[in-house]
Amino acid sequence: MKTNKRPKVSYEPITITEIQEKRSFGLLRFVGYALLAFSVINYLAILIPPQLTNPSWEFQTIGTMVDNVWSILLGFTFIFLFNHNSIVEGKEIVTLKFFSWLALTIGIIFLLMLPLGINNTLTLYRNINNQFTNQQAQQQEQIEQITERLQQVTSSQQLLRIAANLNIAIEPNSNQAPDELKKQMSEAIATAGQNVLNNADRAKEQQTANLIKTSVRFNLGALISGVCFIVIWRLTLWTRNAKKNVS
């Protein structure tokens, strides 16, 4: 049984009229204002509650603001889009003039984030060094306390119990002299302490590398964002040069 094929549907080409072109640009401007509104809500959530004395919060906040700058840039770009022969009314000129100056203000704010970001990076780097220095000092103090405790013990059985508590792998042998046990335990403690220090050094290097990488990304992002907003301000000079009609 033959099946009837559906006729192919085709549409005639559409010529975009001037009105449709204006509506398309109007749609972009509407989306631009919506993006700016969403950006305000998003940035308020980022900045509230502020912790201005916390370098870690400031550092992460700068990074979050840089990561979310795209919506503001697109919003500003869209609201200034007009087609050829567009007529911009007086109220809209005032609005666009305000956003032009706002772009400059935001650009300056992002540029000011650069020295703040660098300062916070140095502060966090010092905090990392201090943290690991304190940890190493505590570990060294613990090793010294254990070593002093070993010197005060004279019984092999007591030494073996201490070794078991410290998870030091020494085979129980009552024939071993206390001095020999002390020597083995001291070597094991020194080796374990050195391993801990080596692991701490590697962790410190990893944290420092991550901090530098993140700092470069955040600070370069703040610099580029600031320049972009200043360029938007310069390219929207026509809104600020609009002549006033005094009647």
From TrEMBL:
Keywords: Coiled coil, Membrane, Transmembrane, Transmembrane helix. The chain crosses the membrane at residues 30-48, 68-86, 98-118, 218-237. Residues 129-156 form a coiled coil. It comes from the Bacteria. The keyword Transmembrane applies. This is HpsJ family protein. It comes from Chrysosporum bergii ANA360D.
